[in-house]
Specification:
globular, nine-stranded mixed beta sheet, alpha/beta, single chain, 292 residues
């Protein structure tokens, strides 16, 4: 692949990274298309042993900020200041490439279509992922590629702007020219995706680019997470009021319920109902909490 096309820097915010982060750095070092740099924006300097990671990947650099300064959007923007690569790959510290072709598969859409400005990866459940979360991954990250354009906003609703900075690649110049991420505590990726589609550009879901990433959230954690989602969507009502997410959530619950019944997993239905209930209540409370 042409050197300019394969020029990629990886940007990862970290907080007390564990052995999963070691696995991530190892897999990035083994990629068929290796990154130029791994740029780490870390929020706990005392906890992180930089030399340990430099033994795994020589061109890894660490930039430290105070925990209180972390912001989902602005901290990632900070990482771009240290990159001059053609593409930037945002990842989280707990996502691990499933093979050595993650970067290759994320680059492929850019090579094939000049209108693509953002591609994102498929998230696979980890080994000990619970059943509901495993099905959610399957629902949100199908096995087929998806090409999203401005027209997709009408046909797909909120799914049109769905992407995840757990593992997503951006055209760096385009990202910067369009202001990068907003200052936000959540959904920085969706907000940028909306801007991208409204610009007439293309968002690409690359299903062959795969990372292992999942969480076994408690009901309270689901409540808190969806509280943030609800609040963010209310803050940006000019976007989300026209592409409501609730119908998509209902569709997912119905699909999961049907799947459990077909596979005689009746005993899992109470967990699905409780999990969905905490998500819904958290989402609504988040919306109600917002005041201009």
């Amino acid at each position: 692949m042409d050197a300019q096309v394969s020029s990629v820097d990886v940007i990862i915010p970290t907080y007390k990274p564990d052995k999963t982060f070691i696995s991530l750095v190892k897999k990035l070092a083994e990629q068929h298309d290796k990154p130029n740099k791994i740029i780490v924006i870390n929020t706990d300097k005392e906890y992180l042993d930089e030399d340990k990671y430099k033994d795994l990947f020589e061109n890894i650099e660490f930039h430290h900020i105070e925990k209180e300064a972390f912001n989902h959007g602005l901290t990632r923007n900070e990482g771009t200041k240290y990159s001059d690569a053609r593409y930037i790959l945002f990842m989280t510290q707990d996502a691990v490439p499933a093979d050595n072709y993650l970067i290759t598969e994320l680059l492929r859409p850019f090579k094939n279509d000049s209108g693509v400005k953002l591609s994102y990866a498929r998230q696979l459940p980890k080994k000990h992922c619970n059943y509901v979360e495993r099905y959610t991954r399957r629902f949100n990250y199908p096995v087929e590629d998806i090409v999203k354009t401005k027209d997709s906003l009408k046909s797909m609703g909120i799914k049109a702007i769905f992407c995840s900075d757990v593992c997503a690649m951006y055209d760096r110049e385009y990202f910067l020219e369009n202001g990068g991420f907003e200052k936000t505590d959540f959904n920085e990726d969706q907000l940028f995706a909306y801007k991208l589609l409204m610009n007439g550009d293309t968002l690409y879901y690359a299903s062959a680019a795969r990372v292992f990433h999942s969480h076994n959230y408690s009901y309270i954690q689901q409540y808190k997470r969806n509280f943030q989602i609800g609040r963010t969507q209310k803050e940006r009502a000019e976007i989300y009021d026209s592409i409501s997410s609730e119908s998509e959530g209902i569709k997912m619950v119905k699909a999961a319920l049907s799947h459990m019944i077909r596979h005689n997993r009746w005993y899992m239905i109470p967990d699905l109902i409780l999990c969905s209930g905490f998500k819904f209540i958290g989402f609504k409370m988040g919306q109600l909490s917002y005041r201009k």
